[in-house]
């Protein structure tokens, strides 16, 4: 199968992005994985190895923590930006910082596309019916990972994901959102 082009995937090494990486390869794309260091406790070398093992053509690891603090966190604190008067918006603030470097890498590498794994139940990746019809939620992704030998840090009994950066940590999963 000839390649449909290169895609730069904002990759974390978690359930969503690991399955998306393999799925994009199945769909005929060359995948370039991109990990952004925004202050999370992450073994970036292990994540690099995992992305390459899953089929990434290249892996970029970029430290954008300084930009994240100076251009996103400080302005948010200065403006008292909170969701519902208590949530620090760390995840929301990190996304444009991550995406900016992702687009730079895509331009540098001549990639046609960028993609992310910001929980496939929303609009990722790309609003492609082939993806969201195939994966209705995290259980479908866990089953796909099992079928394809993708090592993942979650199980049906412990399905939550964690989003950590210099501003905060958030946790997500159906059982946490709908107790």
TrEMBL record:
From the UniProt record, list the reaction(s) this protein catalyses.
L-citrulline + L-aspartate + ATP = 2-(N(omega)-L-arginino)succinate + AMP + diphosphate + H(+)
Q: Which Enzyme Commission numbers does its entry carry? A: 6.3.4.5
The UniProt entry, under InterPro entries, shows: Arginosuc_syn_N (IPR048267), Arginosuc_synth (IPR001518), Arginosuc_synth_CS (IPR018223), AS_cat/multimer_dom_body (IPR024074), Rossmann-like_a/b/a_fold (IPR014729)
Q: Which GO terms describe its biological process?
A: argininosuccinate metabolic process; L-arginine biosynthetic process; urea cycle
Pathway noted in the entry: Amino-acid biosynthesis; L-arginine biosynthesis; L-arginine from L-ornithine and carbamoyl phosphate: step 2/3; Nitrogen metabolism; urea cycle; (N(omega)-L-arginino)succinate from L-aspartate and L-citrulline: step 1/1
The Arginosuccinate synthase-like N-terminal domain extends over: 7-121
Q: Which UniProt keywords apply?
A: Amino-acid biosynthesis, Arginine biosynthesis, ATP-binding, Ligase, Nucleotide-binding, Urea cycle
| Molecular functions per Gene Ontology | argininosuccinate synthase activity; ATP binding
Q: Record's GO cellular component, any one?
A: cytoplasm
> Which sequence ranges form a coiled-coil region, renumbered to this chain?
none
Under the heading PROSITE patterns, the entry gives: ARGININOSUCCIN_SYN_1 (PS00564)
Q: What class of enzyme is it?
A: ligase
| Name of this protein | Argininosuccinate synthase
